[in-house]
Amino acid sequence: MTVTLYGERTPPADDRPTVQVTAVQWPVEESAPAGPAGSGGRGRSRRTRMLLATGLATVVLASVAGVGAYAYAGDVPRGTTVLGAELGGRSRSDAARELRAQLDRRAAELGAPVTVRVGERTAEISPADVGLAVDVDATVAAAAEAEAHAVDRLVGSRTVQPVVTVDVARLDAALKTVVGDQGRKMTMPAITWSGLTPKAVHPKPSLALDPERSAQAVREGWLSDQPITIPLIEKHPATTAEEVDKMVAELARPAVAAPVTLTTDKGSVTIPPAAIARSLRFSADEAGKLTARVDVKRLRTALGDDLAKVEVPPQDARITLTGGKPKITDGKPGQQLDTSTLGEALLAVLPLTDGRKVTGTLKPAQPELTAAKLAGLGIKERVSTFTTRFPGGLSSPRSQNIITAAKDVDNTLVLPGETFSLNGHTGERGYAQGYKDAPVILNGKLVPGVGGGVSQFTTTLFNATYYAGLQDVEHKPHSFYFSRYPAVIESTIFYPDLDFKFRNNTDHGVLIDTSYTASTITVSIWSTKIWDVKTEYSPRRNITKPKTVYLKPGPDCIAAAGSDGFTQDAYRVFRKDGKVVKREKFTWRYDAEPRFICAPEPS
């Protein structure tokens, strides 16, 4: 007799798979003559029982296999829901579509403001403002990769939490407005100096948001319908107050207790405690770890001329005008301290009471500007020149001030990209620098003042750079118009408030050349010519007439004939190869200069 067992999935109307057993015939046990053990009759009965047992086992295995096939039909196990959406039994793409549809249905709920609590303050944050969203693909992947027994999938269900994303930086910025003054910055450990006395700054922990922990709290609490508590984290600096005090006692105080001797092949230099205090720096990194170092640049500044005993500074190459042509003079190398290890060597002996000596090594120091570099700057021709006239000859104080400024600026090299500042170059123009009293404009009238006349040199220099096509950075025309200057394109100066600056916006070096006669001052610019520059003027407009002002007679009274006030435009026109390339507009309004009369006002 043949027994055939097989499992067949035949989905009925409710789509539930069924395990069926077909073509089963049960054997009928007949009487048989007695025989020896193991006779055919008893053997057939035992085989029948074995076949039955085997068939039942096969039925059970087939049932389990069917259940597993049912539970894991599709990519997502059956019975799986996310945010109320049934994703079980679907492929990943179908599950993603269903989840997106569910998110659309719940858009209003998911887009509602989220209540957050930071310390004692509560606020609402818009999910869209901080990038709060459900990552559909990541959520479906998490649902598909879940591990569970097949039977559980058949008879039960499971809910998978969505994968939530948030923009950490935008969330942190939004939460900082909620924190307000509840937080506090970390007080970094430090050691400062008051003369030769070190002062300890003890560290204090910060109380602030931790961006990643804030983001995790929001991701976990977004869909809970409860206010989300955002933690404020206390963070302590790496260096403690006790360690700061120890550094003061074991390094800072001993460091300035006595001088240190710096020995070189060319002699010795004494490093006094004051220089040590200026160069011994204590600084903390972002984690609040305090470390000490010797700032060698500060040390060099503190030692000043004392280093001249052992060092020979290098000399840069120079360019001068000889016979109307640029001439380059090569620089010279020098010898300077090798500072690469000097700081560490000095730091090692500062805690000591004896043996406070360090050895310095002198190494060749090459000039920054070599003849080869200077030759490559393209200073080969005079690209512009400008001259203004002054009265009184060279003996007048005003003329002397003009010439003093011209000599100071003569032969100045401005490298490509550099900005030249006249105030920065000359410094304060006072009696100590050789300047004299001469008329200056102050509060709308001419009064005696040290350095009067330098504005004429400034105007001359401005025009030379203007016609060279160099970039104007800062200038200010006079309040009143003076006929010895070109209108609009002229400049006053007053230390330190009013300055004249230009930028070398070319790829070539710029050399400023100044010269003078008994009645003129000239500034020329040497470089490589790029532009042909001309000026076009608009007609004067808004003309006003001067009024007459009577001043108290005396040595401080300066009379003036007065001049009209007006507004005018000047256009700097750049030409190259005969074609206009660009135009720059300069506009200025001159006040009418009063007619100042040093006499009592007529009755």
UniProtKB/TrEMBL annotation:
Swiss-Prot/TrEMBL keywords: Membrane, Transmembrane, Transmembrane helix
InterPro entries assigned to the protein according to its UniProt record, in alphabetical order: Glycopeptide_resist_protein, Vancomycin_resist_VanW, YoaR-like_PG-bd
Pfam families per record: PG_binding_4, VanW
Residue stretches spanning the membrane: 51-73
Signal peptide: none
Domain of life: Bacteria
PANTHER family: EXPORTED PROTEIN, EXPORTED PROTEIN-RELATED
Statement: the UniProt record of this protein carries the keyword Transmembrane helix: yes
Listed name of the protein: Vanomycin resistance protein VanB
Domain YoaR-like putative peptidoglycan binding per the UniProt entry, residue ranges: 240-352
Species: Micromonospora thermarum
